[in-house]
Design brief:
Shape: elongated
CATH architecture of the largest domain: 3-Layer(bba) Sandwich
Bound molecules: flavin-adenine dinucleotide
Helix content: 25-40%
Order of helices and strands: EHEEHEEEHEEEEEHEEEEHEHHHH
Distance between the termini: 57 Å
Strand order of the largest sheet: 5-13-14-15-12-16
Largest sheet: 6 strands, mixed
Number of strands: 16
Structural class: alpha/beta
């Protein structure tokens, strides 16, 4: 079987790793298939799936995640245990596992159509490939989804976001997310240093790539000092978005990961579900099961739960005060630095 995978992101590379026995061509729009961004939380199910397809990634184990108020009062540990990984380290591990694939960088699929039970795709390099299956793993703004004429559109999810890494250690040994009035800070200890993310419901300032740190000065858990220890040019900025509807493509041109169901990152599930989609699709392509099968309902439920979590975490004004009054009943005192 010859599979053309469009997008060498987390989902596309996982699929390529799982299809080690087959011919795989990977097409990536960027000049290098590296991991962009800071860190990532991966729960046990995603880590197990990665191991099954031969990807070993090191990271800092965590027993769960604590939500808390802006002043640092924390709720009891919740969420699934897993590992906090650096995105570049995850990508490097995925690329090693997918080394058998023929990778074309700075390349996109210009056109594709049906041919003899398969798909004929013309690449921007001018090359034409005849493959059995072409998979759209090209993220939230998927060109494959658009070329298939599927209706899903990107939708602003009500907040803008910055991500960075500091070499300083977090005061906590597990990930913590603090909620303020329209503001959130995530503090995630890595094997080395700490991954930080910020969200704000107010628009980004004109110099969008640098976060407006003064908005976060009243937060606890040493957060303001940690934020200021990130070199200003190391922050990555983008708006939070999701797809307004999910679509999984066609049997010969299936979609996976964000291309199929891109949801908000409020539950830290996007990469994990892209990995699980890829493992399931690889099994289906090899005759075991139907795609997307149960993944359709599972991802719809996660998208809804993630949207709900975002509404709670991004609450402003009276809604935020009401939320904090309720949370305070279950929270413990702020951690001492
Ligand atoms: C702030 C934030 C925090 C997050 N935290 C977590 C977390 O803790 N845990 C978690 O599980 N998930 C998290 N996510 C979600 C996660 O990053 C995504 O869901 C995941 O990367 C999706 O993987 P993917 O392979 O579907 O798409 P992507 O990783 O986006 O990969 C798509 C690839 O396709 C390429 N591409 C795009 N267009 C084309 C084209 N036309 N032709 C060829 N190539 C193309 C891109 O360059 C890219 O390499 C977070 C997301 C955000 C925004």
């Amino acid at each position: 079987m010859h599979v053309l995978v469009v997008g060498a992101g987390i989902g596309g590379l996982t699929l390529a790793s799982a299809l080690r026995e087959h011919r795989v061509t990977l097409v990536e729009r960027r000049p290098e298939a590296t991991g962009i961004g800071a860190g990532l939380l991966l729960h046990r199910r995603a880590l197990d799936a990665l191991e099954r397809v031969g990807v070993r990634v090191s990271g800092r184990p965590y027993p769960g995640l604590s939500l808390g108020l802006a002043d640092g009062r924390l709720l009891p540990l919740a969420a699934k245990p897993g590992r906090a990984v650096s995105r570049p380290a995850l990508h490097a591990a995925l690329l090693r596992a997918a080394a058998h694939a023929n990778l074309h960088t700075s390349c996109v699929v210009e056109t594709f159509d049906d041919c003899d039970g398969g798909v004929r795709a013309t690449l921007s390099s001018g090359q034409t490939l005849e493959v059995d299956v072409m998979v759209g793993a090209d993220g939230l703004g998927s060109g494959v989804r658009r070329q298939l004429g599927l209706p899903a559109r990107r939708r602003y999810a009500g907040a803008t976001c910055w991500r960075g890494i500091t070499q300083q250690e977090s005061p906590h040994d597990h990930p913590v997310e603090l909620w303020g009035d329209g503001l959130r800070i995530g503090i995630v200890p890595l094997l080395e240093g700490t991954y930080l993310y910020l969200t704000s419901t107010q628009p980004a300032p004109p110099e969008r790539s640098t976060p407006p740190l003064a908005r976060f000065d009243h937060f606890g858990c040493d957060a303001p000092a940690l934020l200021r220890s990130v070199p200003p040019s190391d922050w990555a900025h983008h708006d939070l978005e999701e797809l307004d509807t999910h679509s999984w493509g066609h049997p010969r041109v299936p979609l996976l990961g964000d291309a199929a169901h891109g949801f908000t990152p409020n539950l830290g599930e996007g990469a994990a579900q892209a990995i699980l989609d890829a493992e399931h699709l690889a099994a289906c392509l090899q005759g075991a099961g139907r795609y997307p099968g149960a993944r359709r309902g599972r991802n719809r439920r996660i998208a809804l739960a993630s949207r709900w979590m975002g509404a709670l975490g991004q609450a402003t004004g009276g809604a935020a005060r009401l939320r904090d009054t309720v949370l305070a009943m279950f929270a413990t005192a702020p951690a001492q630095a």
